[in-house]
Design goal:
Layout (H helix, E strand, L loop, with lengths): L20 H10 L3 H33 L6 H49 L2 H6 L2 H43 L2 H48 L1 H6 L3 H54 L4 H18 L2 H22 L21 E11 L2 E11 L4 E6 L5 H8 L7 E6 L2 E2 L5 H6 L1 E4 L10 H6 L7 H10 L3 H6 L17 H15 L3 E5 L7 H15 L3 E5 L11 E6 L2 E6 L1 H7 L2 H18 L1
Parallel strand pairs: 3-8, 3-9, 6-7, 7-8
Antiparallel strand pairs: 1-2, 1-4, 4-5, 9-10
Length: 601
């Protein structure tokens, strides 16, 4: 099976000229400071004019000194002008970089911010399928490529081509057409070879970058799953997988280096031929008496001045091609369509009571695998409804749809009569609090993670939420107290401690609608009962959806929905469902037997 050359997290960029669209996409970010852009370009032209004038003045100095009747006044004045032109050329270039620096940095900032916000706007589906390491690599290279692309394209390629054209015209006017022809022929040959060979070797560069992202992503994924690797003693296996990616990258990188060597040789040969022809022509003119010694020095100075930046043209072109590819990948991510977006006429959700209605809801993550089938139920304002059933029955999907991580395929979900698809996502999610089964914390302090539920909350509010979640005593017993850092994804805390932080965080948010998705599954029995009583007390004052595996935690729910293969097969209160002697009663009996066996053991 052929190995994929592209990272799985993003589609490959379109090849060839299509990538040049990335330059156009950058233009609005640069044009925000149009005054600085124009001024910087004026400085660029000024620097090149001064640079081209230097060999002309040098010619006059040499010719003046070569004459037997030369006075010291004329060469001295020319030498002063020569020094001023040298100073102007360097100073204008430095000023240009200073003036344009803010434009580049602001463009990088704006694009990075737009991408950051867009990533948060993308659907849960994208974030479940993404490869974090590869995405990070693409973003990092894309942001860095903005600076390279602008710098090389505007301040390296443009002035180099401008200078070559100016030199060709000067040589044609001041000497003869042969010098201008050799200059232009060398330039055209050089550019043609550079573009042709670089286009050929771009495949190796792309392959190397794709494999680099793959290796980086594989390493990050392995480190994020450190404990799993240890559980199965798979350190060697992970190392072999990583080394496999590095080996593939090594081969691609070697191909890239070999092709670059071939390109460099072709470029050097072109420049050598052009320089040789020019010097021969100038030397013949001096011997014949048609050119002065100053003309020979001028031609030589022009060659050094012109071909020195031209020798880097291949490097610049390669960098531009690579930068365009990297920027295009970043913009591909930036313009990835949103699966869930606000309607054009979306309005803020207005909570009057908090009534939630699911009406004939059908949903599938993939078209060939339906999850929910014609689901209808209502959670009256201030009431609690629980969803139970086997794993994969569709319980957690209810929470994802209510939070609008996905849109329903058909049917509707309403809060106080307002269809979720017609309200803004921000207002909807502000009204809903979720305590998930798998709690992920930021690599920051406990205080930060609880306060995240409401960043503007006071310290007293944070402490009250921690007390309600029965974690205050634990926090205060720690050596660092509230300043204890929880580690990556909260790995320094136990499952129960993380769960209580998540509960405190949600309580601090104080939502009108509460979703508890296996909220106490990671807690021991004693702590679970204490927190469950607190959660049920909190749930009484707001509309609540409880997704549960342990049936003992939802016996007081106002209604229990029993799910099986995406269908509601039973519904009612706990006593009524037991009397039916159906699916729920069988689940209850099985769990009771399991708990009794656990206690006896």
């Amino acid at each position: 099976m052929a190995r994929s050359l592209h990272s799985p997290h993003l589609p490959p960029p379109e090849p060839g000229p299509a990538n040049l669209r990335a330059v156009g996409k950058l233009f609005p970010y640069l044009w925000e400071f149009r005054g600085r852009v124009i001024f910087a370009f004026a400085l660029l032209v000024g620097a090149k004019v001064a640079s081209v004038m230097v060999p002309l003045v040098l010619k006059d100095i040499i010719d003046a000194l070569d004459k037997s009747h030369a006075s010291l006044v004329l060469p001295l004045s020319l030498i002063i002008i020569y020094g001023m032109l040298r100073f102007a050329s360097t100073t204008f270039s430095d000023l240009r970089d200073i003036v344009f620096g803010k434009v580049t940095q602001r463009a990088m900032r704006r694009v990075s911010m737009a991408l950051f916000q867009h990533l948060h706007a993308l659907s849960l589906r994208f974030h479940l399928e993404r490869q974090t390491g590869g995405i990070t690599r693409d973003i990092e290279r894309g942001a860095r490529a903005i600076s390279s692309l602008v710098g090389y394209l505007l301040f390296r390629i443009t002035p180099t081509v401008l200078e070559v054209l100016m030199v060709a015209v000067i040589l044609f006017v001041k000497l003869d057409w042969v010098f201008g022809l050799i200059t232009l022929a060398t330039l055209i040959t050089y550019i043609t070879l550079t573009i042709t060979i670089t286009e050929w070797r771009t495949q190796f560069v792309r392959k190397a970058n794709a494999l680099d992202s793959e290796a980086y992503g594989r390493a990050i994924d392995s480190l994020l799953n450190y404990e799993t690797v240890k559980y199965f003693v798979n350190e060697k296996y992970e190392a072999q997988r990583y080394d496999g990616s590095l080996a593939a990258y090594e081969e691609a990188a070697l191909q890239s280096q070999r092709s670059m060597g071939f390109l460099n040789a072709a470029q050097a040969g072109t420049i050598a031929i052009g320089v040789t022809l020019m010097v021969i022509r100038a030397a013949e003119g001096v011997v014949d008496g048609t050119l002065t010694l100053g003309d020979l020095v001028m031609v030589n100075a022009f060659l050094i001045q012109m071909f020195q930046p031209l020798s880097f043209l291949g490097v610049m072109y390669r960098e531009i091609k690579q930068s365009v590819t990297d920027v295009e990948r970043m913009f591909t991510l930036l313009h990835r369509p949103l699966e869930v977006r606000d309607a054009t006429d979306a309005h803020p959700l207005h909570i009057s009571a908090g009534k939630v209605e699911f009406e004939q809801v059908n949903f599938a993550y993939n078209e060939d695998r339906p999850i929910l089938h014609n689901i209808s139920f209502t959670i009256p304002a201030g009431k609690t409804v629980a969803a139970v059933g086997a794993s994969g029955a569709g319980k957690s999907t209810l929470a994802r749809l209510l939070f609008r991580f996905y849109d329903v395929k058909s049917g509707s979900i309403r809060i106080d009569g307002q269809d979720l698809r017609h309200v803004t996502q921000e207002s909807l999610r502000s009204a809903i609090g979720v305590v998930p089964q798998d709690t992920v914390l930021f690599n920051d302090t406990i205080y930060y993670n609880i306060a995240y539920g409401h960043p503007a909350a006071t310290r007293d509010d944070v402490i009250s939420a921690a007390r309600a979640a029965h974690i205050l005593h634990f926090v205060e017993s720690l050596p660092q107290g509230w300043d204890t850092v929880v580690g990556e994804r909260g790995l320094k805390l136990s499952g129960g401690e993380k769960q209580r932080v998540a509960i405190a965080r949600t309580l601090l948010k104080d939502p009108a609608i509460l979703i508890l998705d296996e909220a106490t599954s990671a807690l021991d029995t004693k702590t679970e009962k204490a927190i469950q009583a607190e959660l049920l007390e909190i749930a009484r004052s707001r509309t609540s959806l409880i997704i549960a595996h342990r049936l003992s935690t939802i016996v007081e729910a106002d209604e229990i929905l029993v799910f099986e293969s995406g269908h509601i097969v039973e519904r009612g209160k706990h006593p009524a469902l037991l009397e039916k002697q159906g699916v729920y009663a069988a689940m209850w009996a099985l769990q009771q037997q399991t708990e009794e066996a656990t206690l006896q053991s």
